Amino acid sequence: MKKLLTVLFALCMILSLAGCAKKEEVAPAPAFDPSEKSEGVMTYAEYAAAALDSEVVIEGFVQAAQSYWNGAKLYVADPDGAYFVYCDGKGEDVNISEDDFAKVVVSTDYSDGWVGKGTGAKVQVKGTKSEWSGEVEISYATVTVLDSDTWLADAEDVTALLGKDELADKMNKLVKFSGMTVEPSTAADGSEVAFLYNWDGSGTPGSDIYFNVSVDGQVYNFTVESYLAYDGSDVYEAAEALNIGDVVDLEGFLYWYNGANPHITSITVK
User: Where are the beta strands (DSSP E) in 113-246?
Assistant: First the structure.
């Protein structure tokens, strides 16, 4: 009997130690938080409140990119807002290396550079908060790619904000417009067409595409930016196939040029 009790006691000790070992397991890593900032980095609210021409430091995730050869331009976002990052110049003056640029964009090679959808890579951006024709951007920017999980934003429907001052609060975000009707544009010969190559019709296939759409009786002008949605991409070909009267859902980045000038990346004919 005494021997049996000794065995049971030893067994209890083993089970107890196993339980303690289990409790001492390493805790799981904290969940990824795309809103988290490094020390000294502005929140989006702090960036929005910063004065023009002041130095800013932000972190966010690359949603899209326009070219590299003539100065990389990045659409960057976090869950609280969005930024347009302008890396000025060419060659050594472009303050993001070509290797780092390849990390932040799903590259599509064509004759003039690389354009397209972002990978969601996290970057830190240092530069000057600037404004050009209404577009608030970070210019003279230096971009550092960070070691982080990736994040891509969902498009926010802003159809109801068209024509309202509140639309500017969504500047540079990925947005969508629902139930828009394609309206005629006027070609150089005076004819009515569904779109123009360049804003005045002076372009050729491969140029930016401009087209008019309306909702609730108001007409707006949107753009397929060739450095973002290149000739041969799905959206570029969809724009070339538009007809006056088509009802479309649109998605793109809310760029600003003397008013809302969305850079469209998706066109769906209803």
Answer: 113-117, 122-132, 135-145, 156-157, 174-183, 185-186, 192-193, 196-197, 209-215, 218-224
- On whether both 167 and 265 belong to a single domain, the answer is yes
- Tell whether pTM > 0.70: yes
Residue 7 has pLDDT above 50, yes or no: no
CATH of the domain at 126: 2.40.50.140
* Residues 250 and 161 reside in one and the same domain: yes
Q: Are residues 183 and 255 in the same domain?
A: yes
Provide the β-strand partners of residue 236: none
For residue 101, give the H/E element and its range: helix 98-104
- The pLDDT assigned to 5 comes to 45
In the chain, the amino acid numbered 270 is K
- Domain co-membership, 133 together with 189: no
pLDDT at 114: 43
Nearest to 55 by CA among 142, 137, 128, 132: 128
As a whole number of angstroms, the distance between CA 240 and CA 232 comes to 10
Mean pLDDT across the stretch 153-177?
97
Q: Which pair of structure tokens corresponds to residue 200?
A: 């005045």
Q: 84 φ, ψ to 5°?
A: -110, 120
